[in-house]
Every structure is written in structure tokens, then in C-alpha cells.
Design a protein that fits this description.
The protein is mostly helical. It has one domain. The longest helix has about 45 residues.
Length: about 200
């Protein structure tokens, strides 16, 4: 069965979604890097703010720029999970290390699997499929690491910061690449049209 082209999956402005998600990831990553406090309470506050804002950004921007209805719905669910997880982390920021490990693990498992599933659904349709697969896989790995991690607040918060940096860098590259691809598409189309008209 032939796959639909990438244009059938995302709009030309979709590149703004990974860039916005990257910015949202870099801010808490910087907070973790430059803060000596790596307690569970600090981790819950940082994760809560990240998950809440990231959920809103992912859900709302994807709803406007993802053209496939099912994929758009999946990202809306992913965004809602982030908002709920973020609100719980912020509201229960004194929940301790166990709650920190639990809430991050659940959030990462659910959102990672959803993004992986979306990437698998559109595999073969270009860069966007690969981006969703990579981000989904990295987030799912974070869930596994937090589940298997010996309880230690400093290590857990540090790993969260490392994940945010990795995801942020990848998403910036993804967004810039998508933007360049969309900018080049009209030129490539015009060039191919000119070549086909040449006797």
C-alpha cells in the first residue's frame, strides 16, 4: 500500500511545533543545570512546569498544524497527558522522591508510546515520521530509566535535565530541517516544471 505524502500529514507551518517544544525544554534544562538544588521537590516543580507548558504547546500547536485528523487527535491526547501530569507535579510538589520518579515515569511512558505510535503510523512519509519516532523512543527510554533507577534525587533530577537538553537539541534541528524542506519545495517544483517544459 502506498503511503500518503508528508504534506498530507503536516502543514507547511508544522516546523514551528518542534522549535516551540525545544524552547520549552531548554528553559527547565537550564534551571536544572545552573541550580545547586537537585532535591525531589525542585525536580517536581521543574518537571511540573515543563510538562504543563509542553503539553499546552504540543496539543494546541499540533492541532493547528497537523493535517491528518487521527494524528492531530493523538497529539491532543499527548498534550492533555502533559497538562495533567504537570498540574499534579506542581500541586503535589512535596510528594517526595517516590512520587517524582512515578509521575515522570508515567508521563514519559504514555507520551513516549503515543509519539512512537504516531511515527509508526506515518513511517515512510519523510522526515516528520523519523522525528516522531526518535522523540517518542527517547521519551520512552526516559520512562524505563526512571523505573529502573535506584532512588536518588540528585541523579534523577540530573537525568531529567540531560533528557531535556537532548530532546531540545534534536527538536531544534528537526524544526530547522522541516522549515528548510518546506522553503525548498516550491523551488524544486518550479525547477521540475521548467525541466519538463524544455523540449
Amino acid at each position: 500500500m502506498a503511503h500518503a505524502p508528508a504534506a498530507a500529514v503536516i502543514g507547511t507551518r508544522y516546523w514551528t511545533v518542534p522549535v516551540a517544544r525545544a524552547v520549552v525544554a531548554f528553559v527547565p534544562a537550564a534551571a536544572i543545570t545552573f541550580n545547586a538544588d537537585h532535591s525531589a521537590e525542585f525536580g517536581l516543580l521543574v518537571f511540573g512546569a515543563f510538562a504543563l507548558v509542553s503539553g499546552l504547546v504540543t496539543g494546541l500547536l499540533s492541532w493547528k498544524t497537523v493535517t491528518d485528523r487521527r494524528d492531530r487527535s493523538i497529539f491532543a491526547i499527548q498534550g492533555a497527558v502533559g497538562v495533567v501530569a504537570g498540574a499534579l507535579a506542581l500541586g503535589l510538589n512535596t510528594g517526595g522522591l517516590g512520587f517524582f520518579l512515578y509521575i515522570v515515569s508515567v508521563w514519559a511512558a504514555v507520551t513516549g508510546v503515543l509519539e512512537l505510535y504516531t511515527g509508526i503510523r506515518v513511517r515512510g512519509r519523510g522526515q516528520v515520521a523519523r522525528d516522531w519516532l526518535v522523540v517518542g523512543a527517547l521519551t520512552a527510554v526516559l520512562a524505563l530509566v526512571f523505573l529502573l533507577l535506584p532512588p536518588h534525587a540528585v541523579v534523577a533530577v540530573g537525568l531529567l535535565g540531560a533528557y531535556l537538553v537532548i530532546i531540545g537539541v534534536y527538536l531544534v534541528i528537526a524544526g530547522v530541517s522541516l522549515s528548510s524542506a518546506h522553503a525548498d519545495a516550491p523551488r524544486d517544483l518550479a525547477s521540475s516544471s521548467t525541466d519538463s517544459d524544455t523540449p
